[in-house]
Write a structure and sequence with these properties.
- The protein has about 260 residues and is an all-alpha fold.
- The chain has a single domain (about 5-255), classed as CDP-alcohol phosphotransferase transmembrane (TM) domain (Four Helix Bundle (Hemerythrin (Met), subunit A)).
- The chain is built from 9 helices and 2 strands; from the N terminus they run αααααβααβαα.
- The protein has helices at about 20-40, 45-70, 75-100, 105-125, 130-135, 145-160, 165-185, 200-215, 220-255; strands spanning about 135-140, 185-190.
- Strands 1-2 form a two-stranded antiparallel ribbon.
């Protein structure tokens, strides 16, 4: 799934039209994902993780450019989804497997395959959803965020020199958990169309500057915790709604009695 895929806009160019600039950005995203696979095979896990994050940046840019230029198309949507499967499905799975999961034998490569399969299912489900509904929130964890979780985990562990069976088992569990989140019904915020009033725009800008400074201090740490917070926001938000709804139901029953 893409955070800002250009195929999500409901206004398309004529069927079959190839829009050069958005498609070029999508191709760069695909190249970064493919390079991440090559780097992981060569044992360059740091470079592989960074390449996946770069792929996510270009995946966001292609949608933004397509909407601003009015060049969204059905071709772009299909091409973007296929590239996403490579960059955010196959590449993170290969990275996680070669970095940690291969030590678990069958359980390791099954976890990697499950991740790829759920990414494909996540993309297929998204492409069948109503675009206007998807612009407000995502159903299930977006696959770029799942890929970023794996990438930032690699960067974080390499930075703090985390090793041993605890780290390996944590990565195995994380891959299975990410696979579940992508096909779950948990709701996640979408930042494709941020709506900010003019009076609050200045404070939002200040907040963005502070976030950039925070990330720049120790990106291997801050990026990991930012993506981790976003990943957990779905199930925690669902748990909160469930508890709040249950409490509200009990209060209504007490009042009725």
């Amino acid at each position: 799934m893409k955070l800002m895929g250009h195929g999500e806009d409901e206004h398309f160019s004529p069927k079959g039209t190839i829009c050069l600039l958005p498609s070029l950005l999508t191709t760069v995203s695909l190249f970064s994902g493919f390079y991440a696979i090559i780097a992981a095979i060569n044992g360059d896990f740091f470079i592989s993780a960074v390449a996946i994050l770069v792929s996510g940046i270009f995946d966001g840019l292609d949608g933004r450019v397509a909407r601003l230029t009015g060049t969204a198309s059905q071709f772009g949507m299909e091409y973007d989804s296929l590239c996403d499967l490579v960059a955010f499905g196959v590449a993170p799975a290969v990275l996680a497997y070669l970095w940690t999961l291969q030590g678990y034998g069958r359980y390791g490569w099954l976890a990697a395959f499950l991740y790829v399969a759920t990414t494909a299912l996540r993309l297929a489900r998204f492409n069948t959803l109503d675009a206007s509904a998807a612009s407000k929130e995502f159903t299930g964890l977006p696959c770029p965020a799942a890929a970023a979780m794996i990438s930032t985990s690699v960067l974080f562990c390499l930075f703090v020199n985390a090793t041993g069976p605890l780290k390996d088992f944590g990565v195995l569990g994380m891959v299975y958990f990410l696979s579940y989140l992508m096909v779950s019904t948990h709701k996640y915020l979408s930042f494709k169309h941020p709506e900010t009033t003019r009076s609050k725009a200045f404070y939002v800008l200040v907040g963005m500057v502070l976030v950039i400074i925070l990330i720049a201090t120790e990106p291997q740490i801050t990026l990991f915790f930012i993506i981790l917070t976003y990943m957990l926001s779905g199930p925690l938000g669902g748990l909160y709604c469930l508890l709040f709804k249950s409490k509200k139901t009990v209060n209504e029953e007490d009042k009725a009695a």
